[in-house]
Amino acid sequence: MGDAFIRHIELLGYEKRFFPSQHYVYMFLVKWNDLSEKVVYRRFTEIYEFHKALKEMFPIESGDINIENRIIPHLPAPKWFDGQRSTENRQGTLAEYCYSLVNLPHKISRCLHVVNFFKVRHDDMNPVTDSQIKKPEVFLLPKDSKKNPTDITGPIVLQTYRAIADYEKSSTSEMSLKAGDMVDVVEKSENGWWFCQMKNKRGWVPAAYLEPMDGPDESEEPEPNYAGEAYTVQKSYTAVEEDELTLKEGDTIEVIHKLLDGWWVIRKDETTGYYPSMYLQKAGEVNTSVKSEQRNRSAPPRRSTIRNVKSIHKQGRKQISQETYRRNSKKYIQNRRNLRGNSQNKANVIIEKNEPEDNKPKAQPAVPPRPSKDLILNRCTESTRRKIL
């Protein structure tokens, strides 16, 4: 395999830390060419020092010789005192800087200076914290921040979940769990993989292995939508369990229930079953490199396949049987067909009624009745009365 290089850098937000003194660090999700994903933390002062060194290494591309040749993005210098407001306001600029940096020519974007700066450090895996002082506050960047750079969230208390069983990671980007472990969820992906942190560890965890502390999490899932949403299969999958479906790439299906563990209930014709959501794409959406990379990962485990589950809740999640999905789907499809049939019948009836109406001759105006002799004598003129005498 060739030298390591960075495929993508995404700014997740920043942390307000209180040890050894109050300061701010930015959180970056770094995606490497071996498909691994790492979260690193950097202060803005060291990001700016990295930027200055990069400009010195490439004076032509930084515009030092001719400003018209500059392709290295600009980055404002840190202020004398960087508080929370400046840290927050700088996120939009920093996100654009990272995007531009990765898309520079390979001699810059893949040079050792860039690669080494974003490599995982010991402090990234073992951040210095002191629970006796205060837990760091996390501020996440909204997903639509490119449209609204100033629309930054307030302090977020990350949701804490508990592992219901042991999980052994299968790649370096994942995190192993033991039953009872408490993790903070940084990002919930609808493909069933959640990015979590636990003390000095971070990584992707199957959502199926996690439960909230306050109760079963079916409240976070939407209700089934038997009308269905049109999706296209982007990757083939062969069913392993009886309630799963086998589909080929290019098949068109309808999603009727989006579940948190990344296994959605779908409908193909009148057949329903589970299918990995990460292998599906909404009809009409454009395929992206990020989605393509996600499909190279294995599908997350299903809740129903987890053994030795140890939940702290007396009542478990409510599960809808596959028979209920099928019965309601057939009922919805039949109603839809009936509505279509009725509309067609009504159209036919209207046509049949209109056709004979078109063939009929137009009605003639009615002739009023002749007035009686008494009426003429009482109301008409003298000359008219003479005619009837």
CATH topology term of the domain at 6-140: PX Domain
CATH homologous superfamily descriptor of the domain at 6-140: Phox-like domain
DSSP summary, beta strand count: 14
User: What structural class results from the helix and strand content?
Assistant: alpha+beta
| Main sheet: strands, sense, barrel | 5 strands, antiparallel
Beta-strand share of residues: 15-25%
| Cα distance spanning the termini | 126 Å
Mean pLDDT: 82
Number of helices: 10
Q: What CATH architecture of the domain at 6-140 would you give?
A: 2-Layer Sandwich
Work out the radius of gyration: 35 Å
* Helical content band: 25-40%
Contiguous low-pLDDT stretches (5 residues minimum) are 146-156, 350-355
CATH class of the domain at 6-140: Alpha Beta
Q: What order do the strands of the largest sheet run in, or round the barrel if closed?
A: 8-7-6-5-9
Shape: elongated
What are the secondary-structure elements, in order, as H or E?
A: EEEHHHHHHEEEEEEEEEEEHHHH
Structure, described:
Keywords: Cytoplasm, Phosphoprotein, Repeat, SH3 domain. InterPro entries: NADPH_Oxidase/PX-Domain, NCF1_C, NCF1_PBR/AIR, NCF1_SH3_1, NCF1_SH3_2, P47PHOX, PX_dom, PX_dom_sf. This is NCF1 factor. With 389 residues, the protein is α+β, with helices and mostly antiparallel strands. Among the domains are: 135 residues, Phox-like domain (PX Domain, 2-Layer Sandwich), CATH 3.30.1520; 54 residues, SH3 Domains (SH3 type barrels); 73 residues, SH3 Domains (SH3 type barrels), CATH 2.30.30. It is built from ten helices and 14 strands. The chain has a five-stranded antiparallel sheet, with no helix packed on it. The protein has a five-stranded antiparallel sheet with strand order 13-12-11-10-14, covered by helices on one side. A hairpin with a 4-residue loop joins strand 6 and strand 7. About 4% of the residues have low confidence.
